[in-house]
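Quick check before the chapter quiz. The format below is the same one you will see on the exam, so make sure you can read both the input and the output lines.
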Amino acid sequence: MKKDTHTDGYLHILKYISLFGGVQGLNVLIGVVRNKFVAILLGPQGVGLISLFNSTTKLIGDSTNFGLPMSAVRNISEDYDRQDKEKLTEDIALVRSWSLLTALLGLLACIVFSPLLSRYTFSWDGHTLHFIFLSPCVSLAALSGGELAILKGVRRLRSLASVSVYNVLGALVLTVPLYYFFGNAAIVPSLVLMALVQMVLTAMVSCRLYPFRVSFRRPFLAKGWGMIRLGTAFVLAGILGSGADFIIRSYLNNVADIEAVGFYNAAFMMTMVYSGMVFSAMETDYFPRLSGASSLNFTFNQIVNRQIEVTLLIISPLLTLFLLFLPQLTVSLYSGKFLPALSMAQVLVLAMYVRAIRLPVEYIPLAKGDSRSYLLLESLYDVCLAALVIVGFRQWGVFGAGAGVAAAGIFSFVFVYVYARFHYGYRQSSSVLRCAAVQLSIGFFVFLCVRSDSGWLRWGLAAALCVVSMMVSFRVLKSKTGLWNVLISRLKNKFIRHAKD
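Here is the expected output.
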């Protein structure tokens, strides 16, 4: 019986990583096509401009949404689990009322601070009007965040997947023609259009399930203070994260040029964002399971260690292949003009190994309800990130910026693990240590091979190491999940049903 539980735990993690990672992968494929068109039509300068506008509006949004997109999920989910329909309807109306208020606040903040945003984002002060026109992006994102929180809380995962796919498709179909005909002049309108599409698609699904109702009476709004307080840590962490990103991109733009921002953004997108599809199960599956076991020390440690192990086993072979074919992917995803970003992207791939080990542990403070610890750890990471990227870029250019991101990840890894060990009693299992040692070593040697000028090292030894990484992951997953037996059993059942028909 114990063995079955052990196997089911690993299978459960594998199933949900595959499910949400698959949906994210489809979005990435559609996004790749769009990014390719954008890179060809606008070039590094246009990509850098989009990056600066997005990071700035995200900073304003994170500063004014009171953390509702995250904190509201918990309230709605509790009502849904208790099957309290009356309370659920009330809380949904409460979320929508507060979302409208935060949307208005974000709109006004973007307009009021547009001169400052223009002055400190760009080396020349000529984008105030652009930021005023981008203010609807902030308000639309706040409204979308509230509706997405509702769908997450009531476990409409299939609807969430559909919305995300249609949203990316809409961005492809609607914005690429604008860039083709109007070039850089279409950047601001296209960003507003994309935000509008996401809000409309999300609201159509959520309002079909729960009709739109709001109230701005003071006693009613006062019931939402619990969500606002809970979201404060998320808001502050979001401000720090967006602020660090804002500082980095503004520094690159002012010290170098807009093309440097484009290279940084391209390398960041290819690694941090695209590989993030493997981490997509964290918020939807892993976090609720971890929260439910927060008072059971052994089970709690077991859940964290299994999540680290399965995540690392899945992502490691993908990262080795990514390293091997990164030059071709850079040209395919963007264009030959973006090859200067290659060295930074290669270093960032190594940082993904560290992130796979660190991220499950970072959820421990949230699962324990320790918002102060979460904010402390996030603050340390954001400060290290901004400082190390700037120092790295000053010393070694774009490659140095990637080295700065990787170094910040390593420092954060040390902070998080030491804090979790002494504050929560978290202990790594020997299985996690073995898995990390093997896969990290393989990844590092692949990195050295692809950086070499020798053809046989780059294509011979590196390709062999990719195969070794895949074999190691498959063998461990097979032994711990009974994956092969499950697949054979399902094939037999399908064959028997087909024979009966």
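If your answer matched, good. The two ends are 35 Å apart (CA to CA).
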